[in-house]
Amino acid sequence: MDNKRKETIKSGFIEALPLAIAIGATGLSYGVLAVQAHLSLITIVAMSILVFSGSVQMVTIAMIMANAGLASILITTVLLNMRNLLYGAALAEGLAPANSWRWILSIGVSDEPFVLGSARFKKYGPDPLYFGVVVATFYVAWVLGSFIGALLGNQVDPQRWGLDLAFPVTFVALLIPSLKGKPVIATALIAVLIATGLEYFLPGNEFTIIVTGILAPLVGVYLTGRLSK
Questions:
Q1: N or C: less crowded end of the chain, CB within 10 Å?
Q2: Is the pTM of this model over 0.85?
């Protein structure tokens, strides 16, 4: 293995590690909550291995505990993951050198790898190896955290220890340096206003994330078009 590849692997792991710790903590919360929803250890870990989506798995557990039907759960989870289509399109050029291996890397297309991958591609150009290392680091953290959470079961209260906030706080800290330019800042502000408004008038609404994710980016697209004229 040449020095360049070694450096890429090292950079990917080091840059992913802080967020991976938060992802592991969130996975622990998921595992604990899944046990409280009466899921078995095998089911809990299998979901993390096969689904690998914190938001989808958390919503699924919440809906199971609320006695939601299978159709409702499937529709909600599909809608939650629709944003990954946009992530995939944005990352396509940066992952192009992977050729036929891109289908494996596509498993890791989600919020956190998108942020790190986009920043890397913008600075250094296409780099599938870096993206793969980031995804692998997050994957191991999520599955391991889920497993530990499932083993702990009812012995830990995620909210009491603040584990439910570990990922959101870390993710926000990661996003702040990327808030540059009027379209991006406007998108973030509109997202905050929409999400806050929906939670104020319709607290606990499971479609807050979906509505915010659809409407807020439209503001950024509109401003980008206006500024490019």
A1: C
A2: no
